[in-house]
Specification:
single chain, 6-stranded mixed beta sheet, alpha+beta, 6 strands, Nuclear transport factor 2 family protein
């Protein structure tokens, strides 16, 4: 694979931005934007689920069914992009997830904290990078 350094930098930047845009959309509860980060046949493996969500419509349905009072914040670090070709890459990220139900009567309670990771296989289709498969898992 002969990818020039400028192209490698562009691919890495686009793929990292895609991952960050996806978590931002979830944290802001803009679930349509989150679902739009996935390819038409995209798969989302969520922690504790044996079967993936298949396609943006299923992803959107699952996230829209969450309580509106649930607040999350994803902190993504140690992002590494492995480029397979000019149209395929994998992004590995460590994730700290803070979650809290804002309808909880005890507003002083600390949010739940989980440590996990994303493995995002990304593809470039029609000039746009999309997540073809996300494996999200908790490790601590």
């Amino acid at each position: 694979m002969n990818i020039t350094q400028p192209l490698r930098t562009d691919i890495e930047g686009a793929c990292i931005r895609l991952v960050l845009d996806a978590v931002h959309a979830v944290d802001q509860q803009i679930y349509r934007d989150f679902a739009d980060c996935f390819s038409a046949d995209g798969l989302l493996y969520r922690p504790g689920q044996s079967e993936p969500l298949r396609g943006p419509a299923a992803i959107l349905d699952a996230y829209e069914s969450r309580p509106a009072s649930r607040m999350t914040r994803h902190i993504c670090t140690n992002m590494r992009v492995d480029i397979h070709s000019v149209t395929s890459s994998t992004v590995y990220s460590y994730v700290q997830l803070y979650a809290k139900d804002l309808s909880d009567a005890d507003s002083s309670s600390a949010p739940a904290l989980k440590v996990g990771e994303f493995e995002d296989h990304c593809v470039c289709q029609n000039g746009r990078w999309l997540i073809a498969e996300r494996k999200a898992r908790f490790v601590m």
